[in-house]
Amino acid sequence: MDEYPVQLAVEYPDRDLDRLTTLLRLFTAIPILIVLASVSGSSSWQWSANGAKGAAFAAGGLLFFGPLLMILFRQKYPRWWFDWNQQLLRFSTRVSVYLSLMDDRYPSTDEQQAVRLDYPYPDAARDLNRWLPLVKWLLAIPHYVVLFFLEIGALLVVIIAWFAILFTGRYPRGLFDYVEGVIRWGTRVAAYALLLVTDEYPPFRLRP
Hints:
Blueprint: E1 7-10, H1 19-23, H2 25-28, H3 30-40, H4 65-73, H5 79-99, E2 115-118, H6 124-127, H7 136-139, H8 141-168, H9 173-193
Antiparallel strand pairs: 1-2
Helix pairs in contact: 3-5, 8-9
């Protein structure tokens, strides 16, 4: 199986999770959601398993039109734009992991914590088709449809995991792997269609 250039993994917490912060997760997350909204330019936040939906087109959030125009007309992807998008996506993913109860450590604005999200900096002239960014959003529609149902499933799984953690202190591994897979899938679609860092079409799979 070929390795997709966008790799995401969430470290499984093989320990008892904090029951109190799990119980109150929607409330304890409010301060970091405010921080995320302030850097994403979004006036509201909608929970999403892929971590990018809430900020994708927000002013000051993930940069989309700038890289698109630079790839189209100059065949360049400015490094600082790439770094900004990567760091913001990592941060928003840590927040999503926290909301999904997969880690009870409060999301850091800069440390990786349990989330490992990596993809290479592209040589736009060599690695990226200059015209493809114009239609990537259209080509990704099948993924949006699948992700809609996967994220509904992920929300139900998180609710089940909430009860499991409250009673046992543990996040069932099968449920954890499913939510991790949905986040991974959504992140790859965001990297392809919004961040424009790869032209390789995202695979239809939850696995790495």
